[in-house]
Design goal:
This protein has 116 residues and is an alpha+beta fold. The chain is 21% helix and 36% strand. The chain contains 2 helices and 6 strands. The protein has helices at 13-24, 71-82, and strands spanning 2-9, 30-36, 43-47, 50-54, 57-66, 91-97. The strands form 2 sheets. It has a 4-stranded antiparallel beta sheet, with helices on one face. A two-stranded antiparallel ribbon has the order 3-4. A hairpin with a 2-residue loop joins strand 3 and strand 4. The two termini are 19 Å apart.
Length: 116
Amino acid sequence: MIKVETVVIRERVETVIDAVEHATGHVGVTVIEAIGHGRQRGVTHEYRGRIFESRFLPKALLVFVVDDDKVDGVVAAIAAAARSGNESGDGIVWTTPAGNVTHHRTALRLEEVEVP
């Protein structure tokens, strides 16, 4: 099993989830609200003639736990769906090995659970 994590702009959350489901059939996801910045180091706003800097921007952290054979499809779907067309700030995606993934209710390992 592999854990796929991605940071995306909030407006792309539903798009990314739908793209992963459509491309690979994978439906499980955890969404966590986050703030942060990358190379763009935040944005500058002007409000009522005053300049304000927002160093941390609203983002979302999406976490998928997938079978090894679905990883490439999930990563490709995320990268394509998260792209907003802006110069920067769309986020990143990374993978980490996930071992001993077990359901709380059944105490079965994820590999042993039948998919409907």
